[in-house]
Design goal:
This protein is an alpha+beta fold. Helices cover about 25% and strands about 25% of the residues. A hairpin with a 6-residue loop joins strand 1 and strand 2.
Length: about 725
């Protein structure tokens, strides 16, 4: 499900400037251009081409533009008066929020005590430093949604990376959905179906949309769960859940000689190279789906390889370049053509094997210079950044942790990729700081999250992921990571004036992830879940070692509880789930029974895996709490939901080692993985939480805090 759209007609989008007259004129011109030439739109896999545009819609657009022109002077006066009132109430000239995803307070204190973090230490001494309470569950899309809206998950409706479809019990992405285009009608006349569009599932209002409504200039760079970009009076570059050009959350391509091609990858596409008769290897790089649904559009790839010199000359599409050992190509602009339409993508390549030859290609990112779909607000903001600073990663989860997990990239290659993306983000962030002298600037950096997920294990030599690994080589990666974060804080502070407020925050902390827990296996062993071939009487037969049974083989007529995602589990409720069997009147008792039995669950290898469980009905305040898992599970540090269970699968064993490089996590008891909050200004309260940041930012800007927000301002009234 890509939802990717590209058009032959270029629409001119409105600019966030003071000239409403110019915006209206450009909008009217866009409508006329669209009416003059029908637009061909690629919607996604199998959706095909749609014909859009009509004279009637053009006339309606022109009328709206004329109304805007006539009312412009009145709107301008209202905005000027409102802006002056807001500025008079503001407690800061500019608020800068530096988000360091996953920065852990315990590690920060350890490295500050060792003298490694002078800029953090200075903030703590002269300003403010506290642990920052994260969300329940402590999962990134949940946490960043609370940061954005100031409400708990029950208020914004995001409870996990995934959510289950109650009709099928299958997991789906929690953040976005594809909305089919509506039929265009005027009375009895029909003008075809409009284009499909992506919809953000996060509810409630972001603080930046409220700021924009009050005339406060705002730039939001790569805050997770901001795709598709919402329309507001400000600038925003989308992040987490923004797909690649194939419509996935990141699918790399691995090319290799036939003798090296075996097995399947998670998160990757394995392709076999063939000889072309001229001494070269040839293959085809997959891109977006064809409009007719007949597979992906592909680009030819050819490699001339000299294994002795460790050098390869590569041609992909129209680009030709040479790679040597340890080199990664620059971003290559790729054109995927389907008839007269073209989709633009970018990718980087790296040779990961010489004899036999193997080539890694990053997920094909949407080209920010010619995006196939809106990835920023306004749409031209992403293009402007690309023209100023060159191509950059646009994929929501840009660092390719799957390629590291599958051992396609080694640690050195992954580190290089992470820091290249970090450098791109720094250029965008400091450009915003330089050009915007008042209002709010927010930028989130991901290196702190990605490297702790994958390198924290080297501080724990006994971690299952370290078997056979050189634990000495990368044992200082985490310390170096925090040092670089400290340097970033110092550079940021040097850009601020005396009336500027700096908030340095993280959405959660980190702990090791040594053992995986499959609750579906526990439910099966204890009679709460059954597979189709399980006997009606007696214990179920053991599954083969490593066998993961998909949700399609679960017998829902005999299943009372099931799990998918990382947060918790569901009851198979009658009238809610399409194949539900649990009487809603009996649900509270069943829920309590399961919570009592799972609390304190002991791992046979030692230790308590589950510290606490929470009934979502009691944990959340917002109007969407009924969409949450029925029970949220708080794992102790060292344990986390199993990889296969996240997709709803059942294993034979409840526990197994986590031997993947993704070896640390935060999907645990949120009390064990708080984030951090540093400030250059003293704030109030000893137990701040993520929900307090949106009210705090609004208060600093002089904007009233809406009554629906669950958090409170941390600004000291004195």
């Amino acid at each position: 499900m890509s939802g990717i759209t590209f058009t032959r007609a270029r629409w001119t989008m409105s600019r966030p400037t003071a000239s409403f007259l110019r915006r209206s004129a450009l909008a009217a011109l866009a409508v006329l251009l669209a009416a003059a030439a029908p637009a061909l739109a690629y919607i996604g896999p199998g959706a095909g081409f749609a014909l859009g545009g009509s004279l009637l819609f053009a006339l309606a657009g022109i009328l709206l533009a004329l109304v805007g022109i006539l009312t412009w002077p009145f709107r301008l006066v209202v905005r000027m008066v409102r802006h002056r009132r807001i500025r008079a109430r503001a407690r800061a000239r500019r608020v800068v929020v530096l988000g360091l995803d996953g920065l852990d307070p315990a590690l920060a204190r350890e490295f500050m005590a060792a003298g490694d973090l002078p800029n953090f230490a200075s903030l703590a001494a002269t300003g403010w430093f506290r642990d920052l309470g994260t969300t329940l569950p402590a999962v990134s899309p949940v946490a960043w949604s609370t940061f954005a809206t100031g409400v708990d998950p029950g208020g914004h409706g995001i409870f996990d990376f995934l959510r289950r479809d109650p009709r099928t019990h299958l997991p789906e992405l929690s953040s976005t959905r594809l909305v089919p285009g509506r039929e265009r009608r005027l009375g009895p006349l029909r003008f075809g179906r409009g284009p499909d569009r992506m919809q953000l599932r996060r509810r409630s209002r972001s603080f930046w949309s409220i700021l924009g409504e009050h005339g406060v200039e705002t730039t939001i760079i790569r805050v997770p769960l901001t795709f598709p970009p919402e329309k507001f009076r400000g600038r925003l570059l989308s992040a987490m859940c923004l797909p690649d050009l194939r419509g996935t959350q990141g699918t790399f391509t691995y090319f290799s000689e036939p003798q090296a091609a075996s097995g399947a990858f998670t998160g990757g596409d394995r392709r076999t190279l063939e000889r072309d008769g001229r001494g070269g290897w040839v293959g085809r790089l997959p891109g977006p789906e064809r409009p007719d649904g007949r597979g992906p559009i592909e680009l030819p790839l050819r490699c001339e390889v000299d294994p002795g010199e460790r050098r390869a000359r590569i041609r992909v599409g129209e680009a030709t370049f040479t790679l040597r050992d340890g080199e990664t190509s620059p971003w290559l602009r790729l054109e995927f053509r389907a008839g007269r339409a073209t989709v633009h993508g970018i990718a980087r390549l790296r040779v990961v094997g010489w004899d036999p030859f193997a080539l890694y290609v990053t997920p094909v990112n949407i080209d920010p210079q010619a995006p196939a779909m809106p990835i920023s607000q306004p749409p031209h903001y992403a293009m402007m950044l690309a023209r100023l600073h060159g191509p950059y990663a646009t994929l929501g989860l840009a660092e390719d942790t799957w390629a590291l997990n599958e051992r396609v990239l080694d640690e050195e290659a992954f580190l290089a990729q992470v820091w290249d993306i970090h450098a791109e983000r720094e250029r965008q962030f400091f450009h915003a700081l330089d050009r915007q002298r008042e209002g709010v600037v927010v930028c989130v950096f991901d290196a702190t999250d990605r490297l702790q997920h994958t390198f924290l294990r080297f501080r724990d030599p006994g971690h299952p992921a370290n078997r056979g690994a050189d634990v000495e080589r990368h044992q200082d990666v985490i310390r170096d990571l925090y040092r670089r974060a400290d340097e970033l804080v110092g550079r940021t502070a040097s850009c601020l004036g005396p009336e500027d407020v700096l908030l340095v925050m993280s959405d959660h902390g980190f702990k090791p992830f040594r053992r995986a827990v499959n609750l579906n296996a526990w439910f099966r062993q204890h009679g709460y879940l059954a597979l189709l071939d399980d006997p009606a009487d007696g214990p179920p037969a053991p599954l083969a070692a490593g066998e993961a049974v998909p949700p399609g083989r679960i017998d829902w007529s005999r299943t009372r509880a099931y799990a998918n995602g990382l947060a918790g589990f569901y009851l198979n409720l009658r009238e809610r789930e399409q194949q539900g069997i649990v009487d809603p009147a009996a649900a509270p008792a069943l829920r309590t029974e399961l919570m009592d039995r799972l609390r304190g669950l002991v791992d046979p290898q030692g230790g308590v895996a589950i510290a606490e469980l929470w009934a979502s009905a009691d944990a959340y305040r917002g109007p969407y709490r009924d969409e949450a898992p029925d029970v949220i599970v708080g794992y102790n540090p060292g344990w986390r939901a199993d990889w296969d269970m996240a997709l709803g699968a059942v294993l034979g064993d409840v526990f197994r080692d986590n031997a993947k490089p993704w070896s640390a996590d935060h999907c645990m008891d949120p009390r064990q993985v708080p984030g951090v909050l540093f400030s250059n200004r003293r704030l109030r309260g000893d137990a701040p939480g993520l929900a307090d940041l949106a009210p705090t930012i609004l208060d600093l800007c002089g904007v009233p805090v809406p009554a629906h927000m669950h958090g409170s301002s941390l600004v000291d009234g004195t």
